[in-house]
Design a protein that fits this description.
single chain, Rossmann fold, two-stranded antiparallel ribbon, alpha/beta, methyltransferase activity, 20% strand, globular, SAM-dependent_MTases_sf, 8 helices
Length: 350
C-alpha cells in the first residue's frame, strides 16, 4: 500500500505496454418499468440524455455512456479498498442491518452489491433517473425521487451512503441533506460519503502545466462555482456532516492514479480502471457545465468537442504520471440524540 502523502513508483516499462486508450465499451439496457414516461425518457441536449425529473440543476447526463462511467467509478472505489475488510463501505455497522439507503445511486452497482452482502436488509437506491437494469436482488429497491424534498420513508436507516455527487447541490442544500440523513438514521446509525477531487496532479513534473489535463480541475471548479453547485464538496463534507450533530467522524484520503503507470500491480489496476472511468465520463462531465457556465461565455458544442480532443491526447500520453485524490468520510449519529461530542479521526490510505 502507498499512503496518500507518499509518491507512487512509476513502472519503467509502461511505455512498452498496450495502447492505454483501447478498451471495449459496454451496452446497457435502459428499459424501465412502472416509471412515468417523461421521466424515463429524459431530455436530449447536445446529443446526450439528461434526467427530466428536476431539469437544469445537475451537470451529469443519464444515458448509457454515463452509466458506464458510474459503473467504472464503482469499480475504482472497490479496488481502492481491496485490502480493507469491507470493500463497499467503511462504517462499522451492525452485522444485521435492516434498512440501507444509497443516495445518488446512478447505475445502482453499490446498492446491488450491498443488497447481496446483506440479504436480510432492505436496500433502497434513489436518484433522479431510473437505473438501466433488468434484475436486482429481491431486497433491493430503486426509486426516482428528489432527496431535497421531505423524506417519506417510514423506517429509519442503519446506513446512508452518498458517492460521486459533486456539483449536485448548493452548500445550503448539502447541509439540508446531511440534516435529513441525521434525522432519518437510527440512533447509532452511520452516514458515509466518498467523493473524487476533479483536479489532476503529478509528483514528478510529468504533467505539463499548460496542458488541458493540468487545468481541467480548475476549469470545472470555476464553472461549477458560477452554477452555484461546487465541485469541492470533498473539502467541506466532513465539517458539514459534523455541524448537524454527527460524532465519531472518520476520514480516509486516497491517492488515485490516472492510467496504468504505477509499478505496484494493485495501483496499476486502479489506474487503468480510473483511466477508463475518465474516458467514459469525459464528455458528460464537460458538456453541460461548459455550454452553460463556460468562461468568458458559454461554449458551443463544437468548442467543447475540440477541447475534449486535447484532453484525450493527454489521457493517451503514457509519459504523464497523473493522479487525483479521493476522500471518504463516515460518521455516526449519537445513540443519545442529546449527547454532544467531537471526535474527528483522520486516516490516510492508498
Amino acid at each position: 500500500m502507498v499512503m496518500a502523502d507518499q509518491r507512487i513508483d512509476v513502472d519503467p516499462n509502461i511505455h512498452l505496454t498496450r495502447d492505454i486508450t483501447t478498451a471495449g465499451t459496454r451496452d446497457f439496457d435502459s428499459d424501465t418499468t412502472s416509471i412515468a414516461s417523461r421521466v424515463a425518457r429524459g431530455r436530449i441536449e447536445n446529443g446526450r440524455r439528461y434526467q427530466a425529473f428536476k431539469e437544469n440543476v445537475y451537470w451529469s447526463p443519464s444515458d448509457e455512456q454515463q452509466f458506464e462511467a458510474f459503473e467504472l467509478g464503482h469499480m475504482v472505489c472497490v479496488v481502492l479498498d481491496y485490502n480493507q475488510p469491507n470493500r463497499l463501505f467503511a462504517a462499522p455497522i451492525d452485522n444485521d442491518p435492516q434498512h440501507i439507503l444509497d443516495i445518488g445511486t446512478g447505475r445502482g452497482c453499490w446498492a446491488i452489491d450491498v443488497a447481496d452482502q446483506f440479504p436480510n436488509a432492505t436496500v433502497r437506491g434513489v436518484d433522479l433517473f431510473p437505473p438501466p437494469i433488468n434484475w436486482v436482488p429481491p431486497n433491493c429497491l430503486f426509486e426516482v425521487d428528489d432527496v431535497q424534498k421531505p423524506w417519506t420513508w417510514k423506517e429509519p436507516f442503519d446506513l446512508i451512503h452518498i458517492r460521486q455527487l459533486l456539483g449536485s447541490f448548493t452548500p445550503d442544500e448539502w447541509r439540508d441533506l446531511y440534516q435529513q440523513c441525521f434525522e432519518n438514521l437510527v440512533p447509532g446509525g452511520w452516514v458515509e460519503q466518498m467523493e473524487f477531487d476533479v483536479r489532476v496532479r503529478s509528483d514528478d513534473a510529468s504533467l505539463p502545466p499548460n496542458s488541458v489535463l493540468a487545468r481541467w480541475g480548475d476549469t470545472f471548479i470555476s464553472c461549477a462555482a458560477r452554477a452555484g453547485r461546487p465541485l469541492t464538496t470533498q473539502e467541506t463534507m466532513r465539517a458539514s456532516i459534523e455541524s448537524v450533530g454527527f460524532v465519531d467522524v472518520h476520514e480516509r484520503l486516497y491517492k488515485v492514479p490516472l492510467g496504468p503507470w504505477p509499478k505496484d500491480q494493485l495501483l496499476k489496476e486502479v489506474g487503468l480502471l480510473n483511466l477508463e472511468h475518465w474516458k467514459a465520463g469525459l464528455e458528460g462531465n464537460a458538456m453541460w457545465l461548459l455550454t452553460k457556465f463556460g468562461a468568458p461565455h458559454p461554449w458551443t458544442k463544437d468548442e467543447v468537442e475540440l477541447y475534449l480532443v486535447e484532453a484525450r491526447k493527454d489521457l493517451k500520453n503514457s509519459h504523464i504520471h497523473g493522479y487525483g485524490y479521493a476522500r471518504r468520510v463516515w460518521a455516526r449519529k449519537p445513540r443519545d440524540d442529546h449527547m454532544v461530542q467531537t471526535n474527528i479521526k483522520l486516516e490516510r490510505s492508498p
